[in-house]
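Exercise 3.2. Students should predict the tertiary structure of the chain below and write it as structure tokens, then compare their answer with the key that follows.

Predict this chain's 3D structure.
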Amino acid sequence: MKTTMHADTAVINNDHARSTNRRRPVCAPDTGPAPSRAACCRLVGWTLAAAVLVGAAATPVSGQPAETRESAPAAEASSIQQPPNPSLQGRKPSVVARINQLRQAILDGDQSAETWGRLGWTLMVHGFGQETVDCLSQAAALDPADMRWPYLAGLTLLRIDRTKARFHLQKAVEIDGDYLPARIHYARLLAQAGEASESRAQFAVVCQGQPDSWHAQVAAASAARELGDLELALRHLDQALELAPDEQLVRRHRADLFRRLNDPEQARRERARAEALPPSPPMADPVLEAARADAAPAQLHFQRGLNHYHAGRIEEAITAWEKAAEADPDADIVSVYLGPALVRAGRPADAVEHYKRALRSAPDNAVLLMRTAALLRTTGEIFEAIQYYRQALKVRPGEPDAMFGLGECLYALGQFEPAVEQFTAALATDPDREEFWLFLADAQYQLGRHDTAMKAAADGLRRFPALGGLDVVMGKCLQEQGQPAKALAAFKTAAQHSADDWLCQQALAEAYLSLPDKQLRDPKAALPAALRAAELAPDSPKASATLALAFLRNGRHTDALTVAERILTRQPDHPSALLVAALSYAHLGRTDNARPLIARVRELVASGASVDAATGELLTEAEQLLD
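Answer key:
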């Protein structure tokens, strides 16, 4: 049976890398769902295709003499007449009823390939292994011209016996060489077996048949990487990038490859770009999708939601996934996708409640635990987030994202010592995560361990030489050690390396405005950095306050007053904004407006409000100006 691919049919893509924004322990919920391959593969029955399914045109298996082709495994089940009788203990009643119905049809005399096949794919979708293969082998014996049966058997065997999976997938390709998912799985198995020339030949057919398919290039790159041919992998990924520069999956594969090529800076740039992109649309597999839709209707809703999501129809995706969750409350993969979609739709409280409901059915799902914790952390529920991170670590000891997330929560609470312990443990497991180095160095700085903080920053910079945040930590430590010139140089480097990081621009602007050595101050140089920081972080009072001060020091009193008043509408007792406004009023000849603001700062200080050295300097200046 020839099977035609449809572009609008998609399946779960298991090649999303770990979806974390930098400086966040798991993928930021507002950037879209992106569960890791390892996480997805643990969700039994929902992600059976373990390799990337990519599309291209194909022809029958080429270049393989008949005497060298795989022979059928000796213990195939093509002669089975009685259907398997798997244990259904603990299964949902609807699943038990469907499997028993199909078994009974066969026992009652329906020996058609279609009925055997439907029983097989029903068992497959619900996580059965050898029983699935037995049924699909019988279907193939009854209808050897239908590629669906060896193809689905091959997918099932990917988790059980790759040698047998290879035989079945090869058979599927021989029956229908135009069905690309089968050829791609087969070619990947050849690569994993070290058969470089035949794997490359298969992928050459794939890429030549679909020259505009970036999916095909990514799959070919993955196979080349498995064979150790990193240069060939890079050529495929360069072609994929040319075809699809804004696909997250392409960027993630490139980040991993550059890491293997010992180019950490390029890997960092690719990873940062990937995290700024929405998840890539998965590749179509109509055969697998038809099996899922027939065996588990909830999966049909799930797939529709996935299609809506990739098309940017977030509310429609949420509706479909809510239907899937209603049809199958135990399907935790729905939660992995639905939760972030709710956040993206501006419904974080609903997302938290959804995660918690899902965890009642799957309390040991580490992915859901970490996503719940991350969302609670971003909404300010730090103590509750800590509980979920600790539970995730019980389920999955040594998980670096959970350790880092727990460390971030402790850091937010000012508990820097235990935070350092978590960051250190996370780095021991995964030293190639720049945010781990950044938070470790800064936490050591917060503890006053300047030498230790500088060592951590230096170690991190050896891996990530353009990570400006580490230069900022270095600069702060040098400033504390009384080396302002070296500190300023570090802040300049940070701003140059991280032009789009507002904290790096902020640090440089503050240094130019407030260094203790007044000879190093340069308000004119501070202003561009302050403007850039405020542009990158328009909602940050700190960035706005620095911009107001930069305007003041450059004699732009009206601009300084405008920015300061904007801060005060949100934070009426912001000391720096009060003083900048007071000084601006004074320079504009409106001293009556300035005096109440200075008086308010005095009240705040008298009541115990802490002010930094720069704000204290402003207060002294304001008092002298008005006396």
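Discussion points: The chain is about 65% helix and 0% strand. Residues 467-537 form a domain with the Serine Threonine Protein Phosphatase 5, Tetratricopeptide repeat fold (CATH 1.25.40.10).
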